[in-house]
Every structure is written in structure tokens, then in C-alpha cells.
Amino acid sequence: MFNLIVSKIFGSRNERFIKKLKPQIDQIASYEPEMQKLTDEQFPQKIAEFKEQIAAGKELDELLPEVFALVREASVRSLGMRHYDVQMVGGMVLNSGRIAEMKTGEGKTLVATLPAVLNALSGKGVHLITVNDYLANRDAEWMGKLYNFLGMTVGVVVHGQTDQERQEAYACDITYGTNNEFGFDYLRDNMKFYKEQLVQRELNFAIVDEVDSILIDEARTPLIISGSSDDATSMYGQINSIIPLLKKGEDFEVDEKGRSITMTDDGVIKCEKILKIDNLYDAQHISYQHHIMQGIKAHHLFARDVDYIVKDGQVVIVDEFTGRLMPGRRFSDGLHQALEAKEGVKVESENQTLASITFQNYFRMYNKLSGMTGTADTESVEFAQIYDLEVIVIPTNTKMVRIDHPDSIYKTQREKYNAIADDIASKYKSGQPVLVGTVSIEKSELISGLLKKKKIPHDVLNAKHHEQEAEIVAEAGFKGHVTIATNMAGRGTDIVLGEGVKELGGLHIIGTERHESRRIDNQLRGRSGRQGDPGSTRFYLALDDDLMRLFGSERIAGIMDKLGMEEGEPIENGMVTKAIENSQKKVEGHNFEIRKQLLDYDNVMNQQREVIYTLRREVMHSDDISDMTSEFVEELFDDCFFPVEEAKGRPLDEETEEMVRIRLDEIFGFNRNEEFKDKLPTREQAEEWVDSILGKLKESATEHYHEIQRYFLLEALDRNWKEHLLNMDHLREGIGLRGYGQKDPKHEYKREGFELFRAMLDRIKENTIRALCHLRIETEVRDDEFQHKEQQKELEYSDNEEAQSKKKPKRRSEPKIGRNAPCPCGSGKKYKKCCGK
Fold first, then answer.
1. Which of 21, 411, 664, 704 has its CA 20 to 30 A from that of 2?
2. pTM, whole model, 2 decimals?
3. Is 494 one of the annotated binding-site residues?
């Protein structure tokens, strides 16, 4: 109440922030006459001058009014579009590292050009991130005319590009692309061996379009690069045949809210009988238990044409928020394999994580982050807590006149869909265009079937038919058009009203049910009423909709019964609508907790990831890592000689001395030195001997020595990091059980994860130095050269023991580090396909 009174007197924080920007709007306008006098050729010259001023130490914000004025005039000349004052406000909000909430049709694509140009003056690059490849290409081409007019370079990163194409795109002043491509490029860069192969530059400034979709909706799923493991897939088919024998409510319980499965005692006994085992929960049968749980989930929680489709013999995930297909993405923990077994397609092998990161932690690495969308205010708390981003609502350029009708609520699905079909038929008859938003492919095809019976022509746009997505959505505002689409299809595409449609009432939006999130409903509504256009919206609900069924429809059903509602008669009541919104708030809170928990666990991994990736970059960019390997040797000697130093001059007992000897032999190969066959070396002797080994290696390898060091360090780092990720996955799976022992699972995960990480770092050092100390460089003669009179000395990298057994000379002309390893020449190709041919 107090906040409300303060807001009434002083205005809200949002209003006060926008009011503070007014002087800058006036300042931008004061530069306009000066910019209008410039010739076209002078625009790139002005940009070059600004770049020089930034390089000389001037702050970007000092140049903001002049640069924004320049971009506004350049837009008029290159695109025929002049930024409105509210768009200037949006540009300033983005430049300040905040989220600009701008209604549909307010020109967010054009707004982004203002901060993009300003921040590109630093020479560090600007990333403009969109939700799909189509929008990335469209915006890069459309706004590229403006950037090119200013003498700036524009690149686009989309699926299927080569590393060279990506390098060129990232090297541009402004780079467009999707969140997945940027994130995966970051992970792939941290799996490369040579700095010449890296594609991304420093993560400087990002403007995220549809920021709520990317930073909220998609943040529940981390980005994962995986490789196939050796686990057999036959068990999925075996278990799949058992699932139909298990009865819901008798053998297992399904929690639809929590998307989880619980086996009953009867179900466990039944599975044990079928599988002919004594105890399903015995450690040796843990894989059976895992496969059964995933099989039940596949059959009872995941529906075909809702959560996934089957296309070309593959199970393809459908994004629950956008309705788009996600080829290449797979459900984890064997769930995808269980779905493949359920659908009778080839069961692919399980994958092991090679690299992963959450969107939250990826985007928080940018020096400055901003975003724009039509619907962010409902998630402002999450944006503030997770990303430290404030949401600023930008006023519309013209007043909104769209009519949002109250929800129409029916008892059953049949009544609801009949009412929807009647509403569409009525609007079609009058010529008013209709856009129907559905939550799944299944529902969109159901409505399509009803319209076919009524002989009403229409377009269906869902994950099965989205190749012409933008074109279909763009025409949805034409007279007589009926378009059925999943709620988010064509997002980012403006629906322009056709001739005569304004007089008919504009575009009519029909929502077939409420989504879990109020924001998705608002996005659907926002497709109508752009830039002061007329329009109308109505949501149709039934008591057995998922949201209503799971969150309190009994109370609403009671209200309908008391009112004596007849079949086919809807209820339109503000209290009911309020109750539904409260249900949505509960679900939003639940989903926020899921995302927060994912982030809490990934924060532990993120600290470790930063250490490993920073070390990798240092190794890749250093011309000489001898100091690093010397440090490794010192630290390993500290470990090996710890018992000796602890004894403080006293003789060691036989067991301890043997332990020290074994460690020295394993890592440094001391058993090769006759001097230390019968006695333990002192630390000084050990250091001298290892120095001599590495000295000889350097002398023999000549100019290849640093490349050898780099190779073995990166190889040890990547191999151990991969194993560590698997260990952390296993730790995460079982960590929840610590709660039963009155321990905080997150704290235990952090503590045990740190112990695993420390052990991994020790193994990296040990593996690297062991490889270098056991490496022997041989002199070999190639057969074809042996037939000639001259002989030539050549190098080969091999393990010492392996070298002893070699009899024949090999055909090598360059140092060899494994046939499938990256070639030391830095070409980026495998050795066998490059210098090893």
C-alpha cells in the first residue's frame, strides 16, 4: 500500500527512469540538422572519427547523442525508416545494460541498431542474438543496409557454417546469430587445439532479441556437446516390452505437476518377477531400475506430436515454448533412447558429456548484456536475481486500442472446441482475419479437422510445417485469412493488416487454452493491435485443460454448478480469470525454482569450467609453456617427496620407501636410471635427472619441442576433463539422497565436486609429465629414401616401451602424435590427413 502511494505521488521507478532520458532525446534531436547536411560518403568518415575518439580514451556514453543522431539519419537514407523518440529511449535502455520491454510492432529490430553501432565503435564486436536462423539471416540482411551505409561490417552465424565462415562472421563489427550457435561455438572453441582454429572473440556486448524466450524459457535446458559412449542399447527394447504390462495407479504413480514417476511396491514385485531377479534395488540391478523409470516416463509423461514427433525414422524434440522442432537436441539420461524404443525406431547409443554450459552462465560472461521483448515484466524478479538485468517498460508510440475479451470457460473440451470453431466461422463470414494460437501440434490439427468439416480454408503452422513460417504469419492479417499456429510460431515477424481489415476490427486472436506462463499468453495477445491498429483477443478454456485440471478446477467447477450452467454455455467471470492467473503464478514460481536449482548446480561446474578453459587458452596462446611444465614437475616432486621431508632426516621404513620409489618410477621413469636401482634419490638428484631428460628431449625435438609439450598437456587436460564431467554427472544423480542424512545436497555437491576437481588437476599434471618423461625420439629411415644413397634423420614420438619393440623403420617425414591427433603444423586437420600422408 505504501509503495502504491509513493508511486502515485512520485511516479514509478520505470517512469522516473524514462523521464531522466528526456534531456538526451532533446540532445539527439539537436544534432539532426547537422547530420542531414552530410553527404552519403561522409557517414563512414564520421564512424571512423568516432572510432579514433574511443581509441583515444573517450567514453561511449559521451558520444551517444551524436552517434544516435547519425544512425537515425543513416536509417532514413538507407532504409527509408526514421527512429521514433520512443525507439531512441529503447536504444538508450539497451545501451545501459537493461531489458527494454516494447510491445509488438514497435520496431525492436530497428531499435537494436542504435546501441549496436555505438558499442561496435570499441572494435570488440557486438552480438545480436535471435531465436532462429531465419530471423538472424533476415535481420542481418535487412539492417545490414544501414550498417554498410555507415561503413561497418555485418556477419551472421547460422547452422552448417564452416569454422572459417564463422571466424569471418565473428570478426565483423556486428554479428547476428542464434543463442544455440553462439553457445555451442563457445564450447567448441574450448575443445580446439590451436589458437588459429578459434572462431569467437572476447564476449563484449550482446543484445538478446526475444530475451524472455532465450534467457527464461530455454534456460531450463543446458547446452551440451556429447560423444557416444560404449553402453549397449539392447536393454531399451527389452524394457520397452515390459512397460505395457505395468498399470498406472497400481504399479506406479504419475506426478504430472512435478513430471516424475514413483514405483509402488506391487510394481517393483511385478518387475522382479518379469525380469527374474531377486531385488530390483540391488546395486547389480541398478541399470534395470533406471531403464524402467525412463520407459514409464516415455510412455506416460511424453506424448507424440506434443513433446516430440517422429520424422525420417528419428525422434525429434518439439520445443514446448515455440512449437519448433529441435533437430540434433536429445533428451538426457536415456529418456531419448526410451522414446526411440517406444516408437520402434533405431535406438541410438547413449551419449557422454564432453562439454556443457547453461545459458545463464554463458550470457553472464558478456562484459555488457541487454535484451528486448514484448513481454518481460512478469519475469522481472528472475531477470534481476539471475542476470542482474532491470526491466524497463517503454511507452508505445501510439495508444493501444486492442480489445481483450474475458476468458470463455466451458465444462468440457468438446464444448470448448465447438465454440472456437463457431467463433472462427463467424469471423470468417465477416472477413475479419483470425489467428488461432495452440499449445501443441495435436491441438492445432484437431482445430484444422473441425474447420475442414465447416469447409473454412485455413493455414496450419506447427512444427511439422514451419518451412514457410514467416510468410504464412506475415499474411495472417489479410482479409478472410484463418491461421492456426502453435503459440510462438513466427515470433519476430510483424503481422501487417491488409486492405479493409481495420474497418472489420483488425486481427482477432483466439487462444485455445492458457499456457503455464502468463508471458506466453501475453505474447499471443501481442500479435494483434500493433502501432495503434484495432484488434481483439479471447481465450477459450475447459475445466479439463491441463492447467485447469492440475491447479484447482474443482473450485471453478463448483461455481459453474451453482450458477446452473447449461451444456455449451460459457462462464465469463473476473474471479475465475483471477484464479487462473494465480495458478499460472504458482507454475511460474515452480519453473523458476527448477531453473534456479539448475543454475545452483551449474555454478559449481562453472567455477571449475572457468579454471580449465582459462588454462586451455593460456596453453593455446603461449609460445612456450616450459615454465608451466616446470611448475608441474615441482608440484609432483612436492607430492612424491612429502614422506621423505616429513621424516626430517630419519630413515624411511621399507613400505614408505617402496611407495616413494613406485611413484617416482610411474611418473618420471626412474627405473631407467642404473644409479637409482638400489637407492632412493635425493630430491636434488631427482630434479637434476628430470632436467636432463627434458633437456635431451628438447635437444632432439628441436623446433617441435614446444608443440610436443602443448600437445601432451592439452591431451591430458581434455581426457581428464571428460572423465571429470562424467563423474560430476554421477555425483549429481545421487546427491539428492544426502537429504535423508540431514545434509544439504547442494553443499555436499559443492564439497565433493571440489575434491573430484582437485584430484583431476593432479592427474592432468601427472599425465603430462609422465608422457614427456617417457617420450623417446628415434632416428628412423624411410624405405624409399633408403633405396637412394642419402639417408636422413627423422623424428617420431612414441612411448619408451613401445619404441623398444619396434623392429622395422617407419615411413614418417614429420613428428607423429597419434594418427587421429591434430597435426602439429597447425592446419587444423588430423595428422593422418595432413603431414602424415
1. 21
2. 0.75
3. yes
